[in-house]
Amino acid sequence: MNYSELTRRCFDNAGAAAGVLSGACVGRGTAGSRRHGTWVQFDIEVAPVPAAQSRIVAARFLAFACPHTIAVAAWLAERSVGADCAAALPESVQALARRFDVPVEKLGRLLIVEDAWVAAATAATAAVAAAGMRVTIS
Amino acid sequence: MSPVNGPVYLDYAATTPVDPGVAAKMAECLTADGVFGNPGSSSHEYGDRARRVVDAARAQVALAVGAEPAEVIFTSGATEANNLAIFGVANYYRDQGRHLVTARTEHKAVLDPCRELERRGWRVTYLVPDTGGLVGPAQLAQALERETVLVSLMHVNNEFGVIQNIEALAAVCARHGGVRLHVDAAQSVGKCVVDFAVSGADLMSLSAHKVYGPKGVGALLVSRSSGVQLEPLQFGGGQERNLRSGTLATHQIVGMAAAFALATTDAAGVEAERGRISALQNRLWRGLEALGGVLRNGEPSNCVPHLLNLSFEGVEGESLLAAVRPHLAVSTGSACGSASNEASYVLRALGRDERLAESSLRFSLGRGTTESDIERAVDAVSAAVRRLRAIGGP
């Protein structure tokens, strides 16, 4: 299979964004299963400061998945730093599919990415709230 | 040897580069100053010369595989030979029964014709080899029926390299009223001994481009002593004993013969090359085994040394291939590596689960493979597997 330049670059350099985070303001979300061929996990750390808009200060991912899925997960983890912590992908699945030239038969894998991302963002928000800090979900 | 800056070529089971000596012989049959005539043109010297060249090539191919020249039917390749064998026998003997036996680990060039016959009302028994890849004689005997008209089993498996005991399987067919046996030997020549007469097979498919010959030519060996009959699949000229009409491609046939001669005539050289390939394969296996979680597909003691098929635990198949692709030219059991959207059905038939079948790589070594190539392959695959396992988490 041929991959776009962006997919190839993000896949080749995915190690930089791979890993796990820990701390009071970290939320984790997972989706999919290795048995079925695609599993994705995100750790999202939110700034522990009272603010109208909470900011993502770090994000990491793990993935047992195809190059497209790994590339998208790595791109999301890297590009999200400094962005608002929202219970939604920064871009729609359709927009990500276009950006990475993801074949239509693989769109279901991007939904797994979305599920993991939303779960992590939601968990991060809950973690900050549990720590007594105020955040606003945009 | 692979180019220093290019990917290491370890896909010799897919195809091989044409040997320069073979290419030179082929070139002599193309232009006006060479043997360009139509071998079927008996009315002039140009045709006679071409016919003599084809006759010599036919004898050379026959000699290389223990057959008689008259048993060699040239085709466009092993796929056509397989089709001619399967449909040719099925059509000729359809009044005797409509049952075939083959194995789940066969090449698509055998399985697809069998499926087509099923669509036409035939019954096909698909044998499941043992976990090492072998079909047992007793297993075959149990599958044979009064209505069985053909058994089709391959000699050397193209994915994991196991060598079937054709003589033992042929003996089973002989004991069962002389059920015809077709053998796909596309991967065999130059890798192990092929002796059509001794094998007991009625029909055998051969390919040139797997053994440093040109693409687009192969042969079906049709035993004269067994008396097996075929119905032709194409008509128009009556070439090749009326079994394969069409102008003979002199240059292709000459190329096939030269390649087969190179692969078989120098017994000591062939054995030395086999030893060299075996040592390289062992080095590759030892290097990759050290990663841990690496499973070997096919029973090593029954496999040709040119093939090494490995499954890597904890990595996704398409990503593995994508990670090694800049460094290596290999085949994969992953969906992305094939036209069909499924894990390798061959490895699944050996009992590998879908994930392991997808995360398999087939390394096939050849004349150009060097120690340096093997070291580069070990480094590239090791780095890819470690990186993907790290990304994949615990």
Secondary structure blueprint with pairings:
The complex is a heterodimer of chains A (138) and B (394).
Chain A: H1 5-12, E1 26-33, E2 38-46, E3 56-64, H2 67-79, H3 93-99, H4 107-130
Antiparallel strand pairs in A: 1-2, 2-3
Chain B: E1 8-9, H1 20-27, H2 45-64, E2 72-75, H3 78-92, E3 99-103, H4 108-119, E4 123-127, H5 137-143, E5 148-154, H6 166-175, E6 180-184, H7 196-199, E7 203-207, E8 218-222, H8 250-264, H9 267-289, E9 294-296, E10 307-312, H10 317-324, E11 328-329, E12 331-332, H11 345-349, H12 354-358, E13 360-364, H13 371-392
Parallel strand pairs in B: 1-11, 3-4, 3-5, 5-6, 6-7
Antiparallel strand pairs in B: 2-8, 7-8, 9-10, 10-13, 12-13
Helix pairs in contact in B: 1-8, 2-8, 3-4, 5-6, 9-13, 10-13
Walk me through what this model shows:
The complex is a heterodimer of chains A (138) and B (394). Chain A is α+β, with helices and mostly antiparallel strands and 138 residues long. Chain A has one domain: Sufe protein. Chain: A. Helices cover 38% and strands 19% of the residues of chain A. In chain A, strands 1-2-3 form a three-stranded antiparallel beta sheet. In chain A, a hairpin with a 4-residue loop joins strand 1 and strand 2. Chain A is globular, with a radius of gyration of 15 Å. Chain B is an alpha/beta fold. Chain B folds into two domains: 8-17 and 267-392, Aspartate Aminotransferase, domain 1; 35-264, Aspartate Aminotransferase, domain 2 (3-Layer(aba) Sandwich). Chain B is 39% helix and 14% strand. In chain B, helix 2 runs parallel beside helix 8, helix 5 (137-143) runs parallel beside helix 6 and helix 10 crosses helix 13 (371-392). The longest helix of chain B is centred in the C-terminal third of the chain and has 23 residues, at 267-289. The two termini of chain B are 38 Å apart. The interface between A and B is medium-sized, with 21 and 17 residues.
